[in-house]
Design brief:
The structure holds 2 protein chains of 2 kinds. Chain A is mainly α. Chain A has helices at residues 3-31, 38-54, 59-80, 89-111, 134-156, 158-168, 170-175, 180-202, 214-227, 231-253, 255-272, 276-290, and strands at residues 124-127, 130-133. Chain A has one domain (3-211). A two-stranded antiparallel ribbon of chain A has the order 1-2. In chain A, a hairpin with a 2-residue loop joins strand 1 and strand 2. The longest helix of chain A is centred in the N-terminal third of the chain and has 29 residues, at 3-31. The radius of gyration of chain A is 19 Å and the shape is globular. Chain B is an alpha/beta fold. Chain B has 2 domains: 39-155 and 292-372 and 395-414, Rossmann fold (3-Layer(aba) Sandwich); 160-259, Rossmann fold, CATH 3.40.50. Chain B has 14 helices and 16 strands. In chain B, strands 7, 8, 9, 10, 11, 12, 13, 14 and 15 form a 9-stranded mixed sheet that branches. In chain B, helix 2 runs parallel beside helix 12. The chains are: A mainly alpha, B alpha/beta. Chains A and B meet through helix 1, helix 4, strand 2, helix 9 and helix 10 of A and helix 1, helix 2, strand 8, helix 7 and helix 9 of B.
Chain lengths: 291, 419
């Protein structure tokens, strides 16, 4: 396998890990809610994108609208259900698991076991005799754009300031006049919107079915566990590390070992760094500041 | 800090526990009252939800149609046939629960069903313990030799042997196999390897993909590097079927694909936008498009679509389920009882049924079927063409190479070409 192939493989793995984890990481990092219906939010995004595109809308526009649509859906779910569970991590697992089942089976009842998909746009690029899908290269770029976007949202906006304050200490933030409930609610919608975006982006490359989200669930949880609580530092670093591990193993021995590698890294990281990579980074930064 | 650490750990453990729970959890249906002797009860276990529902729903409809037709023609032994069909939800634990319920609670006379080989192997021991007549009406990797089990679907003797022979003859000797990583994929890949060798070809590589994988870029670049003459795909489930779209974009579409799982079961050629499924060759025992050429195939499609207009495709497993039930009904009539041993004896008399896919007869020694097989391919526009018909293909690997004769010696195992 050539270096170019290996790099292409890394780009694929990296963008898949980052995009599948980002929505989950925001919700978990900021709210300590473990969203087991994350895969179904992704599935919703994929369904919306497919349906809009088949109704004649340009793909880019329908991906964008699906992201917003799933964000709005997330807001409704938050108001109805999640808002009663702020700060109750364990209870959130059970409830979101229930939501995931309702969504998956609901989709099966409404649209049947499968939906005809749209094909991947943009064709492929030929370098040195092998073809690389341009759309997949674009996904790699988009995964970076998403990370930058997240940085801007959390570092340069008022919402970002409030939400970081809420994440650090909810009570003090509240006593300083931050409406933490609203911050939580917006954060959940933002996480859902990013999940919807991921679904929309991957819809043209995969089979559309009610179980669309399940293949995202394992990689996304592994990325978040390895990354730790900070959605930005954690997700980007763990996406990088896991992407390298899985693409190398994948290239050397095949898909099965790539999968195995992901899980082994997760076990090792949890054992050595229970707070994930971002926990380590924070520790180092704190030590530096003290010196 | 300490508290945070503990919280994180605790939530991680909870997630894992819940995932385990979700796997072992099963729903609760109300059991109907036990058999009153006024009806003959037929248990049907098919997946109407979950990953396999695409095919399970077709099979469920076909079973309903078969039972209705039997009742319309006066039932069996002067009694009506009653179908008991809980949804198995593509979940093997639920298969076991429901199989036990059908046998112990509903006292059914025979059981039809299961899609995946894992589901079948989950319930086959239950059938054997309870001496329950069981029909596995589905394509599978072959090799089951069990006194109580009849397999009416296609097996490698029907599909892989003629398919690989044709592919090597027409396209060349270098074969690359990708297969789902569980018993069906592993054993089918072994069959491909065996047939390739017999036809003077060479397996350049075979790769097993874990179930649930949906991203294939490394596999695709490996295939392109190996430059095979034929690409055999034995992928299973919705996630793995994402391969075709990705192969169409960054693979080499001039390499013909050969498969025994696609199109005839889950109608990928209709569900996926062209050219994802273009240039694929399959061998099937039945598919909806045969209706254009064969009147018996057309009658079946028309009947099923009239009764269940919501059904999206009439695939080969729907035909197997239907023919399986009809073979069972014929055997019950011949035996004049529903007692398991007598019905098995009647089935082993070489009973046959002329149905949607032509003549299907039971091979007494192996409990499999002798059936017609069709070679079908899609062109570059993903349009379907029926190329060839192989008449009355025998399932004789078990009896010839393994020496199985279930009429003389009862067995309860699955033979495989794996060493």
């Amino acid at each position: 396998m050539s270096i170019l192939d290996l790099f292409y493989q890394f780009m694929n793995d990296f963008s898949f890990l980052i995009l599948s984890a980002i929505g989950l990481a925001i919700i978990f990092g900021m709210m300590k809610i473990i969203n087991l219906s994350h895969g179904e939010f992704i599935m919703l995004g994929a369904y919306m994108t497919t349906l809009f595109t088949k109704a004649g809308m340009p793909l880019i526009l329908s991906i964008f609208i699906s992201a917003i649509g799933v964000g709005v859906f997330g807001f409704i779910i938050d108001r109805l259900v999640i808002s009663h569970l702020y700060g109750r991590t364990l209870d959130s697992v059970v409830v979101t698991w229930g939501i995931s089942m309702v969504l998956q089976q609901g989709m099966l009842i409404i649209f049947g076991p499968s939906l005809q998909g749209v094909s991947t746009p943009l064709g492929s690029l030929s370098i040195g005799g092998s073809a690389y899908s341009i759309y997949r290269l674009l996904l790699f770029v988009i995964s970076f754009v998403v990370l930058v976007l997240l940085y801007v949202i959390f570092m340069n906006t008022k919402f970002g300031l409030y939400s970081r304050a809420t994440m650090q200490n909810q009570e003090i933030a509240q006593s300083m006049g931050v409406n933490t409930n609203r911050v939580y609610s917006l954060t959940f919608s933002l996480g859902a919107a990013f999940a919807g975006l991921t679904g929309g982006l991957y819809a043209p490359t995969m089979t559309i079915s009610p179980s669309f989200g399940t293949s995202f669930l394992m990689p996304s949880f592994v990325t978040v566990i390895v990354g730790g609580a900070n959605p930005l530092i954690g997700t980007s670093l763990s996406g990088g590390v896991l992407g390298i591990v899985s693409s190398i193993l994948d290239a050397l021995w095949g898909t099965f070992y790539g999968r195995l590698g992901l899980l082994i890294v997760a076990i090792i990281v949890i054992r050595i760094l229970p707070l994930g990579i971002s926990g380590l980074v924070e520790k180092v930064l704190v030590r530096k500041n003290r010196v | 800090m300490k508290l945070k650490k503990l919280k994180f750990k605790r939530s991680a453990i909870t997630v894992i526990l819940l995932l385990c729970l979700s796997i072992s959890l099963f729903g609760c249906n109300n059991a109907s009252s036990s058999s009153d002797g006024k009806t003959i009860k037929l248990g049907v276990l098919e997946d109407r939800s979950g990953d396999f529902s695409l095919v399970g729903i077709q099979k469920y409809y076909a079973a309903k149609l078969a039972v209705e037709e039997i009742n319309k023609n006066g039932g069996l032994l002067g009694k009506k046939v009653e179908m008991v069909a809980p949804d198995t939800q593509s979940d093997n634990n639920r298969y076991q629960e429901m199989a036990k319920r059908l046998i112990l609670n509903d006292h059914v006379d025979a059981i039809m069903g299961a899609f995946s080989s894992a589901s079948r192997e989950a319930i086959r021991p239950i059938m054997e313990q309870n001496k329950m007549l069981y029909f596995y009406n589905n394509q599978y990797e072959g090799g089951v030799a069990s006194k109580y089990t009849f397999n009416t679907g296609a097996i490698p003797d029907h599909q892989i042997t003629p398919l690989i022979k044709e592919m090597i003859k027409n396209f060349g000797p270098k074969v690359y196999t990708i297969a789902a990583d569980y018993n069906f994929g592993q054993i089918s890949a072994k069959w491909v390897e065996k047939t390739v060798k017999e036809n003077g070809g060479q397996v350049v590589n075979q790769e097993f993909i874990p179930l649930g994988v949906s991203q294939f870029s490394s596999t695709i670049s490996r295939i392109k590097k190996a430059k095979p003459d034929v690409l055999v795909t034995l992928l299973v489930g919705q996630d793995q079927s994402s391969f075709y779209e990705q192969w169409a974009k960054s693979g080499d579409k001039s390499i013909p694909m050969a498969s025994t799982v696609n199109m005839a079961q889950a109608y990928e050629h209709k569900r996926f936008a062209a050219p994802a499924l273009a240039n694929m060759y399959i061998t099937a025992t039945y598919m909806e498009e045969l209706a254009d050429k064969y009147p018996s195939a057309k009658t079946f499609v028309d009947k099923l679509q009239k009764k269940f207009p919501k059904n999206k495709y009439v695939g080969m497993e729907a035909e197997s389920e239907y023919s399986g039930i009809m073979l069972w009904a014929k055997a019950v009539k011949k035996a004049k009882t529903t007692k398991t041993d007598a019905v098995i004896k009647a089935l082993e008399s070489g009973i046959s049924y002329n149905g949607p896919a032509g003549k299907v007869s039971i091979d007494p020694k192996t409990h499999h079927t002798v059936r017609n097989v069709y070679l079908v391919h899609t062109d570059s526009q993903q349009k379907l063409h029926i190329d060839k018909e192989f008449k009355a293909v025998k399932p004789d690997w078990l009896s010839k190479d393994m020496g199985v004769d279930l009429t003389k010696k009862p067995e309860f195992k699955q033979y495989t070409p794996l060493k």
